[in-house]
Write a structure and sequence with these properties.
Keywords: Golgi apparatus
Structural class: alpha+beta
Largest sheet: 6 strands, mixed
Number of strands: 37
Subcellular location: Golgi apparatus
Pfam families: Ig_TRAPPC9-Trs120_1st, Ig_TRAPPC9-Trs120_2nd, Ig_TRAPPC9-Trs120_3rd, TPR_TRAPPC9-Trs120, TRAPPC9-Trs120
Shape: rod-shaped
Protein name: Trafficking protein particle complex 9
Helix content: 25-40%
Number of helices: 27
Distance between the termini: 129 Å
Radius of gyration: 57 Å
Strand order of the largest sheet: 2-3-1-4-5-6
Main location: Golgi
């Protein structure tokens, strides 16, 4: 016997072997459909008995194995079933002749045979026959199973007769010597009358009868015969048959202990009627079978338990039997099959280490020169057995050898598909899974070097199969999961191979379905590049939407009446972590920043990189980037435009690397930091862009509120100068601009402004609204600079230090005197000189114009945008009033106001007042001018120009009164200066405070007035005549002038 049956198991010793074969041309599908129905009848209850016959079907069985039927009867073909197609009566004789020829192949061992004819109808089919069954077609054969049961009963009759014939003690007859094929030549010429020869014959016959009893369902009798055979054969050192007797004893004991079988299919065998108890654990089974049928005496059960081997003894006897088989070179197949049977028993007993010893012995059993197909089968069975005992890596090792054998060079047509299929089956043994998600869960499992070798073999097998898509998928998997274990050169080689394959078949995110139904999941390149963090960015400051205050409370959730609930907070913790506290706007470009890292030793080109989103229709704008080798963390900004409103969730990103398209989900990226994934998209709003008539400023305003300024402009003005700022408002969005509000705020200045610094008329601009997309509106802002015109220190030499009288001079002709700064009055400490009094010091004013605008669907929902314009104004000094005094006039209600005016500019200017001639001042020149004015009756002013309840304290009320007085003075004096080549500018502000006390109408109670005046002045120079005359001249400190 040269062809081993690797599917053998211990319980096969009690089966009858039936061969089912086709005759002539029979469609393969039809044959196996009938074969499946026949093989379903695998056990039959014998009539009028509690025995059960077990049948083992084979559609192919080598005739040379049949010659070992006397050695072990379960190897003998006792039944033959043939299936044929016969459509006409003319073909029937030839078909029947083929049936007889087929029987002759197994004629010496057959008990009975059957022929199933399909397609033949008529007179021949109507003739009753026991060995032939006619059916019209393969679909009309309902009685197949019944005929098979009748056929098995006929086999049982023959089997029982042979058993009774061999088991009957015929002492007068000579017992024949049973031999295996290779022994026949060795027994020629032996003394058949010797005692040794007779014991050999008796021992072999006892063993043979034990086989027949086991097949006939008589387990107890078989145990008795096996024990007797062992004693007889051991006495004559008949080792080959002694091993067979021990193996039979082991098989009967296994059937007793493990009624479910050892072949791997639990429950495939039913318990024997009477011989096996339903409660196998107790093993008390009354009604044991004897040679005469049923014996209800329970003492027979005791005898059977005594003859049966224990589970431990079964393995010992298997070892002994295999050692005897090993003495014979021609018994290699028997030895191999015995090892397989022992391993299956040990697998049930969970004795893996001992089972591995049997398998190791089976590996080294030397058989004849096996064909490639037989080698594949041998290694596959070894792999299956190692898998059963839990040796997964060893199982994968032999499975891989079987796969390589499928593509051996000696095979004319290598079976690459079979090779690929077997390689796939080895993956679990090497801790490999074709799902990349399994490699993102903790540490790496398995030997990376072996896994990479196996993946390379899968790629090669896929290429030889002519399936480039599989090559790309396995190479992608190799690069994704084994990247940390690849050397720099290996990374280059793998990527070059991948690019060559993707040039023919790009990698996709689709599942690949194999012919056997296995689906290969897609492999996204989450490590090319590696993403460390994902951050959703807010819109630029000028584009961020704001909710109108009147509508803020409308979106407050009313699901719970409580402000805070720990239950709600706990259940919504995950949502809170992913929610973003800002909004995106429909139709605007939105940004997501990724921090990526290139782990490759060469430049990595990433193409078609964009965002993956759900919830809102989103137009992703792909980007392409090139990352340097081992770049470290590198910021990448991905952009897109939401097309609808609602909640949008950023689930991940997509890339194209080395020709492989990947969809990388954030849930599959371990260790990625994110500030949240979900953001609200509000309806579309217009977009406003501003441009001005002034140049851009290098000074960036930084307001205390933290707001960002989109545009900064600057301008240089003289103190008192007014200039127009023309702003062009362009709607660069897609929605109409319907609403506009403008506010101004002065920032970062300690200077006191007089009058309106910035003023405008919004009505002219709003008349151009609604502003369509692409249209431009004009907005004009007046910049008026009015700071302090007084000199804060006496840096200039007084024109008259002793209070010179100018009464002799005509008041209409001002007294002129050019002076220069007094050097000796300058402080030595430069820090003190820089504090106050620098008449050439340039002052800075900064203001922010804020444009609040809205329109379109966003305006309906109550949203608006803010756009800020920063204004940087450098104020250069123009004129200074270094001294203020008065001279009496002819009327007590008038006086002459004397002003020392200094020109601090580099230009020649003129200064004028109402009803006065112009005074020309050269650069750096100081002159005194006299103005005849009427005094003011400030007592007629109300205590407060407006309702006093509007002011927070008395200080504000006083400031309001002073401002009203200043406006009155300014309108009466109307002092202005003009540079010849420039415009005309007015003097306001602190000048009003300088002359306020000088121009006030004398009160009726002079004593009360003088007391008040002395209390407020530090240095007073005045002359009070006997008549009612006003103060002629006095000097104040600059600090008092401001009060």
């Amino acid at each position: 016997m040269s062809v081993p049956d690797y599917m053998q198991c211990a319980e096969d010793h009690q089966t009858l072997l039936v061969v089912v074969q086709p005759i002539g041309i029979v469609p393969e599908e039809s044959f196996f459909r009938i074969y499946k129905r026949i093989s379903a009848v695998s056990q039959v209850n014998v009539r009028d008995s509690q025995r059960v016959l077990y049948i083992r079907y084979r559609h192919h069985y080598p005739p040379e194995n049949n010659e070992w039927g006397d050695f072990q009867t379960h190897r003998k073909v006792v039944g033959l079933i043939t299936i044929t197609d016969c459509s006409s009566a003319k073909d029937w004789p030839q078909t029947f002749e083929k049936f007889h020829l087929q029987k002759e192949m197994y004629g010496s061992t057959l008990y009975d045979s059957r022929l199933f004819v399909f397609g033949l109808q008529g007179e021949i089919a109507e003739q009753p026959r026991t060995d032939v069954a006619f059916y019209p077609s393969y679909d009309e054969c309902e009685t197949v199973e019944k005929r098979i049961e009748d056929f098995i009963e006929s086999l049982f009759i023959v089997l029982e007769s042979k058993r009774l014939d061999r088991a009957t003690d015929k002492s007068g007859d000579k017992i024949p010597l049973l031999c295996v094929p290779f022994e026949k030549k060795d027994f020629v010429g032996l003394d058949t009358d010797s005692r040794h020869y007779k014991k050999r014959c008796q021992g072999r016959m006892r063993k043979h009868v034990g086989d027949l009893c086991l097949q006939a369902g008589m387990l107890q009798d078989s145990l008795v015969h096996y024990h007797m055979a062992v004693e007889l054969l051991r006495s004559v050192n008949d080792f080959l048959w002694l091993g067979a007797a021990l193996e039979g004893l082991c098989s009967a004991s296994v059937i007793y202990h493990y009624p479910g079988g050892t072949g791997g299919k639990v429950g495939s065998r039913r318990a024997q009627g009477g011989s096996l108890s339903a409660e196998a654990g107790n093993r008390h089974r009354p009604g044991a079978l004897t040679s005469n049928g049923i014996n209800a005496d329970t003492s027979a059960e005791i005898g059977r338990a005594k003859n049966c081997l224990s589970p431990e003894d079964i393995i010992d006897k298997y070892k002994e039997a295999i050692s005897y088989y090993g003495k014979y070179k021609n018994a290699g197949v028997i030895e191999l099959e015995a090892c397989v049977k022992a391993v299956r028993v040990l697998a049930i007993q969970k004795r893996s280490m001992e089972a591995s010893e049997f398998l190791q012995n089976a590996v080294y059993i030397n058989l004849r020169q096996l064909s490639e197909e037989e080698k594949i089968q041998r290694y596959s069975i070894l792999s299956e057995l190692y898998e059963r005992i839990g040796f997964h890596r060893k199982s994968a090792f032999f499975k891989r050898i079987a796969a390589m054998q499928c593509a051996a060079p000696s095979i004319p047509e290598p079976g690459w598909r079979a090779c690929y299929k077997l390689l796939l089956e080895t993956l679990p043994g090497y801790s490999l899974s074709l799902d990349p998600k399994d490699f993102s869960k903790g540490t790496h499992r398995g030997w990376a070097a072996v896994q990479m070798r196996l993946l390379h073999e899968l790629v090669y097998a896929s290429r030889r199969m002519g399936n480039p898509a599989l090559c790309v998928r396995h190479l992608s998997f190799l690069l994704q999961t084994m990247l940390d274990f690849l050397s720099d050169q290996e990374k280059k080689d793998v990527t070059q191979s991948l690019e060559s394959y993707t040039a023919k078949c790009p990698g996709t995110m689709e599942f690949i379905t194999l012919p056997d139904g296995l689906k290969l999941p897609p492999v996204p390149f989450t490590k090319l590049p590696i993403v460390r963090s994902v951050k959703l960015l807010n819109l630029p400051t000028s584009l961020r939407p704001h909710k109108m205050k009147s509508l803020l409370g409308q979106n407050v959730s009313t699901k719970s009446p409580f402000i805070y609930s720990p239950i709600i907070a706990h259940s919504r913790g995950e949502e809170r972590n992913k929610k973003i506290d800002f909004q995106w706007v429909q139709g605007d470009v939105c940004e997501v920043q990724l921090m990526v890292y290139n782990p490759m030793p060469f430049e990595l080109r990433v193409e078609n990189m964009g965002l993956l989103t759900t919830g809102v229709e989103f137009e992703s704008l792909p980007a392409a980037l090139s990352l340097p080798a081992e770049s470290g963390l590198y910021p990448v900004t991905l952009v897109g435009v939401p097309q609808t409103t609602g909640q949008i969730t950023v689930n991940g990103y997509h890339t194209s690397v080395f020709g492989v398209f990947s969809d990388c989900l954030l849930d599959n990226l371990p260790g990625v930091k994110t500030n949240g994934c979900t953001v609200e998209v509000i309806p579309a709003l217009p977009r406003l862009q501003i441009s001005t008539s002034l140049p851009r400023s290098a000074h960036t305003l930084q307001p205390s509120s933290g707001d960002e300024i989109s545009t900064n402009v600057s301008v240089q003005l003289y103190n008192g100068e007014t200039q127009q700022l023309i702003i062009k408002l362009e709607n660069i969005g897609t929605e109409p601009l319907e609403k506009l509000e403008v506010t101004a705020k002065t920032v970062n200045t300690k200077e006191k402004l007089y009058g309106d610094f910035l003023s405008w008329k919004l009505e002219d601009t709003l008349s151009q609204f609604p502003l369509k997309p692409g249209k431009i509106a004009t907005f004009t802002v007046n910049i008026k600079v009015k700071l302090d015109f007084s000199c804060q220190e006496n840096l200039l030499q007084d024109l008259s230090d002793d209070g010179i009288s100018v009464s002799g001079l005509p008041l209409s002709s001002p007294f002129r005197q050019v002076v220069k700064p007094r050097v000796e009055t300058k402080p030595i400490n430069p820090q003190e000189s820089s504090k106050v009094g620098d008449f050439s010091h340039v002052k800075t004013l900064e203001a922010i114009l804020n444009f609040k605008y809205s329109g379109g669907p966003g305006h309906v929902e109550g949203y608006y945008r803010n756009l800020s314009l920063g204004l940087h104004v450098e104020v250069e000094p123009s004129v200074f009033f270094t001294r203020v005094s008065t001279l009496p006039a002819t009327s007590t209600r008038q006086c002459h106001l004397l002003l020392d005016v200094f020109n601090s500019t580099e230009h020649e200017l003129t200064i004028s007042a109402r009803n006065n001639e112009d005074l020309i001042l050269h650069a750096g020149e100081c002159q005194r001018m006299a103005i005849q004015v009427d005094k003011f009756n400030f007592e007629s002013f109300p205590e407060s120009p407006t309702d006093g309840t509007q002011f927070a304290n008395a200080k504000q009320l006083e400031e309001e009164r002073q401002q009203a007085k200043g406006l009155e003075i300014n309108s009466k004096l109307d002092i202005c200066w003009k540079i010849i080549s420039f415009h005309e500018y007015f003097v306001e502000g602190v000048l009003n405070q300088l002359v306020l006390e000088h121009l006030q109408l004398a009160p009726l109670q002079w004593g009360e007035f003088l007391i008040r005046l002395v209390q407020r002045l530090w240095n007073v120079e005045c002359s009070i005549p006997t008549t009612c005359m006003p103060v002629t001249s006095f000097r104040k400190s600059p600090q008092f002038i401001r009060k």
